[in-house]
Amino acid sequence: MESWQKQVREHCLRANEMVAITGAGISVPSGLPSAEEMFRGKQVKELFSKELAKRHWQQYRHLYAKIVEDWSVARPNHAHHALALRDVKTITMNLDGLHQQAGTKSVIEIHGTLRRFRCLHCGARERSIALWKNHVKCRLCDGPMWPDVVLEGEPVRQLGLALNWMSLADALLIIGTSLTMQPIRKFPKIAKENGIPVIVVNEKADEWVPYYLIK
Ligand SMILES: [Zn+2]
To answer: In this structure, are residues 91 and 165 in contact, taking their beta carbons and an 8 Å threshold?
Structure first.
């Protein structure tokens, strides 16, 4: 075992309150697109447009039904299961729901999820994908139901709780993301200021190859 591997192992074994931040890379082995692939595809980008969601939801809903259906068949991989086994608190940028499916209890989906729907008028949530396909209007107010993702201009979700977790964490794992988005890109700096190790795992998260360790 190389010395960096030993170091990572030691940090992980020692930590009791590990927090993980995960991005698209962790779900690539589950058959989902990487961040680059996702944003090259115009269709996914449109998913986050408030304008389109409100004005053209009927026109786009078939497209979204396909995305939601494609994604709903993905299953958690070894990386999701490993985090669930250690009961690691997980802050994810992913919309796929795979951490919960693997059994992780503490998950913050800062950008929302594709596995739930939200009424764009009254905010009511709907869980069933099957139901959404046949019943795309809100059962309370008849408003348009949209995948429950954070739309352009909306704040990320549960940031206060994420910062609370960070204040208690004794190690930070960053998996499958280059952390390009604010405010989450500040988290490694916060971890360093808190004096805890930051372990970064490359985009092929199934191999668990940490490529650098910030002490
Ligand atoms: Zn409604």
So the answer is: yes
Q: Please tell me the distance between residue 67's alpha carbon and the centre of ligand 1 in angstroms.
A: 23
Residue 108 falls in which region: left (phi positive, over 0), alpha (psi -120 to 50) or beta:
beta
How many whole angstroms from 45 Cα to the centroid of ligand 1? 24
Average confidence score pLDDT of the chain: 84
What does the domain layout of the chain look like in residue ranges? 1-31+76-111+155-215, 33-73+114-149
CB 190 within 8 Å of CB 198: no
Indicate the fold that domain 33-73+114-149 takes in CATH: SIR2/SIRT2 'Small Domain' (3.30.1600)
pLDDT digits (tens, 9 = 90+) for 32-89: 887 777 767 655 667 777 777 777 777 777 777 778 778 888 999 999 999 999 999 9
- Which one is catalytic: 80, 99, 111, 135? 111
Q: What is the mean predicted confidence (pLDDT) over 182-199?
A: 90
Residue range 147-163, pLDDT digits in tens: 899 998 899 999 999 99
Is residue 111 part of the annotated active site? The answer reads yes
